[in-house]
Design goal:
Elements: E1 2-6, E2 10-15, E3 18-25, E4 34-41, H1 44-59
Antiparallel strand pairs: 1-2, 2-3, 3-4
Length: about 60
Amino acid sequence: MGAAMTDPLARLDRINGKWQVFTRKGADGAAQAAWLSLGGCPDQYTAVRVWLACLAQGKH
């Protein structure tokens, strides 16, 4: 598993040929915060759009 794009709010990884979008679940900076997978996507462009939408939601 190699990290493709990482941000404190969302992460995009390629796992087993599919793009996985992860988002943080929990308080910012909390030790108990966990990454929650939003599911796999075979299309890189769609996965990047979901990842960017997660980042945009967290910036507001």
